[in-house]
Write a structure and sequence with these properties.
alpha/beta; Glutaredoxin; 2 domains; five-stranded mixed beta sheet; two-stranded antiparallel ribbon; 7 strands
Length: about 160
């Protein structure tokens, strides 16, 4: 029995370490991101501490996505202190997506999704999906469905949580 314990104890420690590391990675990956948009601007959640951040997942073939883009653009124009980033999930043809985005009024940062982006942000359950981070970097809104300028204003006008 003692021999068995000696052999399994290191394995138990290793498995606990792996579990803790995995959970920590999930926690970090679920909220932190480091993205580069089509204008070669880097967007890191850590750099936006103190600001609201809106991520909107969309696709060129998604009618509700196309309908909400002018609303998001109007919100971004009226709220320049809020960081707004659009994530195009159908980015196989980058030139086509960028042209389409301009045509429908997408005037905010545009990130073309790929494996690296999906690894950081996860794959949205449905399109469109909007994720909002409060000024402390915590996800406070992550829902599929259309958003409006008003719904974005309501979501980002809440007072940030008190610092502990």
């Amino acid at each position: 029995m003692r021999n068995l314990l000696l052999k399994t104890k290191p394995l138990l420690r290793l498995s606990r370490f792996a579990a803790v590391t995995f959970c920590a990675t999930l926690a970090l990956g679920a909220s932190a991101f480091d993205l580069t948009d089509t204008a070669a601007t880097r967007h890191r959640l850590a750099d936006y501490k103190g600001q609201w951040v809106v991520l909107n997942f969309w696709a060129t073939w998604c009618v509700p996505c196309i309908q909400e883009i002018p609303e998001i653009a109007a919100f971004q124009k009226e709220h320049p202190r809020v960081v707004v980033i659009g994530v195009a999930v159908d980015a196989a043809d980058a030139a086509k997506v960028k042209q389409f985005a301009r045509k429908v009024g997408h005037n905010y940062a545009l990130v073309l999704s790929d494996d690296a982006v999906e690894k950081q942000l996860g794959e949205p359950r449905a399109l469109p999906t909007t994720r909002i981070y409060d000024p402390s970097g915590k996800v406070v809104y992550d829902r599929p469905g259309r958003v409006t300028r008003k719904s974005l204003e309501d979501a980002t006008s809440k007072a940030p949580p008190a610092k502990a």
